[in-house]
Design brief:
Strands 1-2 form a two-stranded antiparallel sheet. Helices cover 57% and strands 13% of the residues. Strand 1 and strand 2 form a beta hairpin. The longest helix has 24 residues. The protein has a domain of 48 residues. The N and C termini lie far apart (61 Å).
């Protein structure tokens, strides 16, 4: 009986906490739209962490720089996948 009450109380508390987070008006107000005119020189910073690092590092690039990095990463992964399929299994 105690376990049933505890489970019911826990479920009830969890359902109220998710509703409170979903209806938080501050998060909607904190989101700001991107500027309508982008000259391409605006820096966009991301926190990037690599395997083995404790704290993420801050990397700032332009929009074109991030796109170039994304394409290079995509090309590298595609080349690795193609090489893995073309090698004979020993």
């Amino acid at each position: 009986m105690r376990i049933t009450r505890l489970a019911f109380a826990s479920g009830l508390a969890l359902s109220f906490s998710t509703a409170a987070f979903a209806a938080d008006p501050q998060t909607a107000a904190a989101v700001q739209p991107a500027p309508a005119t982008d000259d391409g020189s605006t820096l966009i910073c991301h926190l990037v962490s690599h395997e083995g690092t404790v704290l993420p590092g801050r990397v700032c690039l332009t929009k074109a720089g991030w796109e170039r990095a994304r394409r290079l990463t995509q090309q590298t992964i595609s080349e690795i996948q193609v090489r893995s399929f073309s090698r004979p299994v020993k």
